[in-house]
Design brief:
Helix content is 48%, strand content 13%. By secondary structure, it is of the alpha+beta class. It has a five-stranded antiparallel beta sheet with strand order 1-2-3-5-4, with no helix packed on it.
Length: 312
């Protein structure tokens, strides 16, 4: 493959690069290529088996560090929602139908194109904690030093652990793990899902939190509440109080993770375009913590130590 002859597309926050050929997309990756190429295709195969639209594999060139996959075009739901003429209510209803469809998936094992066995991992509390700690490892490291940093690190780790202990729902469903409107494509067949390589079996509230409290797309509280209530209507067996508890905790921890990841992208990889999204991530954290007593200790810590950092 001669990359110079292909059109390079705008990338995402992963180690992958995307190129458009005549009728397909080439996904090129050297670093962490098992996850970004091999696992990615295995997850797509699981989705396709369950009638979820995902990019099918055209050819694999794993030794040469790339895959050729189906081209869904450039129209994301994000782009559609940015248009004033879009019926946002109908759009979000279709997105929720897609979410419900993936949450019903039960397949855990899939043969890869290398004939190895891929198993969809469980989203354990340890994984969630490690992800939340990215905030400590990168954002805290950037803005605090010495005793203050050590104190905040100790307190935040204690608070994160406490929040995870208070998660109510143990039953696991299929979780895309990055379910937001930039990863949902509008295709001729319907809504398609991309960037699925990190899928796991985890909490039923996680993908909904990704969708509603999406740091890339600002939505008002009325829209957020509508999506949340529509989800509950479609899941009548859920205990509303317990589900809201899990939603709030996972949204907050996810946005701490995002702040950490975006800081890491800037510091480590010199990708600075994501820094502009950090102030809104802080606002989403404030939104979910402001009226819930479970976040009392966290709110106290944030007010005393982070208010001047939130605009960075």
């Amino acid at each position: 493959m001669n990359l110079n002859k292909l059109v390079k597309l705008s990338g995402d926050a992963s180690f992958r690069n995307f190129y458009r050929g005549k009728n397909s997309i080439f996904v090129y990756c050297i670093k962490n290529k098992k996850n970004n190429l091999l696992d990615y295709d295995a997850i797509n195969k699981i989705l396709i088996k369950k009638k979820v639209i995902a990019p099918s594999l055209i050819s694999q060139h794993y030794k040469e560090n790339y895959l050729e996959i189906e081209d869904f075009g450039d129209l994301t739901v994000f782009k559609k929602l940015k248009k004033k003429s879009t019926n946002k209510i109908n759009c979000y209803k279709k997105i929720l139908d897609l979410l419900l469809k993936i949450q019903k998936i039960k397949i855990k094992n899939q043969k890869t194109f290398l004939k190895t066995n891929f198993k969809v991992p469980n989203y354990t509390s340890k994984m969630l904690l490690n992800e939340s700690n990215l905030f400590i490892d990168w954002y805290l490291q950037k803005y605090f030093k010495g005793k203050k940093k050590k104190f905040l690190e100790k307190e935040l780790k204690k608070i994160f652990k406490k929040l995870l202990i208070n998660i109510s729902y143990n039953k696991k469903v299929f979780v895309h793990r990055d379910f937001h409107v930039s990863n949902i494509m509008i295709t001729k067949k319907g809504l398609g899902l991309v960037d699925s390589q990190d899928a796991v079996y985890g909490n039923i509230a996680y993908d909904l939190a990704s969708l509603i409290d999406d740091v890339r797309l600002k939505t008002n509280i009325r829209t957020k509440n509508f999506i949340f209530q529509e989800f509950l209507k479609k899941n009548k067996n859920l205990d509303h109080k317990k589900f809201k508890n899990d939603f709030d905790i996972l949204s907050v921890l996810r946005n701490f993770k995002i702040i950490g990841i975006f800081t890491r992208l800037s510091v480590r990889d010199n990708k600075n375009k994501y820094l502009k999204l950090i102030p809104y991530a802080w606002k989403l954290i404030e939104l979910r913590t402001s009226k819930n007593p479970i976040f009392k200790d966290l709110n106290c810590l944030l007010v005393k130590n982070f208010d001047k950092k939130k605009e960075n």
